[in-house]
Specification:
The structure is a homodimer.
Chain A (H helix, E strand, L loop, with lengths): L5 H20 L1 E7 L2 E3 L2 H8 L7 E4 L6 E10 L4 E9 L6 E3 L2 H7 L5 E2 L10 E4 L4 E4 L3 E4 L2 E4 L1 H7 L6 E6 L5 E10 L6 E5 H6 L7 E5 L3
Parallel strand pairs in A: 1-14, 2-5, 6-10, 7-10, 11-13
Antiparallel strand pairs in A: 1-15, 2-6, 3-4, 4-5, 4-8, 8-9, 11-14, 12-13, 12-15
């Protein structure tokens, strides 16, 4: 090899720097979602009483979103889950997000869905300290997804609603497919997985993953 | 393009044949393992009494292996799990196989390990109808693995103890890495996953998966 070939050295250097930059850019922190519920105002008032307001326990990573102090019990045909935390603020529609294993315990079989898409979803009974609500629909298993800002999206060369693959390292390494990209000025970079997904890959909050090419 | 270029034609033909052969690849049925326990004779006698024998509920897919009628409770520092099924026949050493989520409930943090390798594993209390045993070690989360015969191994071009990647299709599609291949005349073709892994990929017993190349 001719080590005096400046053009070649320059080319290699450029490729290496580019690869290193790519490595730096694409790392996405994981946020693990335990089962939780988003309530509409009407349901909240029935469950907790007319004069009660949702109160903040702690902020979540996505701006404006928070874990509330208030919890409910959800009850399906086969069993119930207590202490299901409400995430605030209140929404236009009540939505219950559980894992596939939660579904087996409750006796419901929710589809894997994007948040907000409640068509053809099973219902459930919600029990609060002041009342009960029987929902006809609203239970989903969340589709794996990544929240990111437009600037993150640009760096990773993806667009809102893209479906990507994500590589997870470690003894239970995996490439997860069908991961939905959501882009908004309001989003902070974070990939959401549920407890089944996190445990199956032995992944913890804030572990780093990256988008990889389709095979 | 020069269609008289024999070398090129030969090369393309070879690639097409290779691809067609790959398509024929062997599909591997999934067997989902719920938490279970293998007992040594000494522990079995303490838990169930000197005169009791392990009795078969049903055969498992791997020849000679069976689910027993007998179950135990396992108890860790944080909680217990009842009705943990014994898999027979009795073994030389007691081994408890749980999922990562089971580990959280029990308050133990077992390593991801190949069956039979109990070095540096946490212990647990086992409770039977006639007595208790406190194990100093023996709890593992099973390493993903595939059982196969030498003839299956030949078809798939893998050897005993190879580590492969396995592709799972569907809405929660994934490529799982670090999958151990175990080859024996006594084995029937089957990939074992635990409940966390099955639920995270929305996979059921007897669903079919395949070995894919390393990226």
């Amino acid at each position: 090899m001719d080590f005096n070939n400046n053009e070649l050295v320059e080319k290699i250097t450029k490729i290496i720097i580019q690869k290193l930059q790519e490595e730096k850019e694409v790392l996405i922190p994981i946020g693990i979602s335990n089962r939780h519920i988003h309530l509409c105002e009407e349901d909240f008032k029935i469950l907790f009483g007319k004069d009660k307001s949702l109160s903040k326990l702690k902020d979540l990573k996505q701006p404006g979103q928070y874990a509330a102090n208030e919890c409910v019990t959800i009850k399906g045909p086969k069993g119930e889950l207590k202490k299901v935390r409400i995430l605030g603020p209140l929404r236009n529609e009540t939505q219950i997000e559980i894992s596939v294993s939660d579904g087996f315990k409750l006796g419901v079989n929710p589809p894997i869905k994007e948040s907000g898409n409640l068509k053809d979803t099973p219902g459930i009974e919600i029990i609060g300290p002041k009342g009960k609500v029987t929902k006809e629909k609203g239970v989903i298993c969340a589709l794996r997804h990544i929240h990111m800002s437009p600037s993150d999206a640009k760096k990773m060369n993806v667009c809102d609603k893209d479906i990507v693959n994500v590589e997870i390292d470690g003894i239970r390494k995996a490439i997860l497919g069908n991961v939905l990209v959501r882009v908004s000025e309001n989003f902070k970079l974070e990939m959401h997985l549920d407890m089944d997904e996190a445990n199956s890959c032995l992944i913890k909050n804030n572990d780093l993953v990256k988008i990889v090419e389709n095979r």
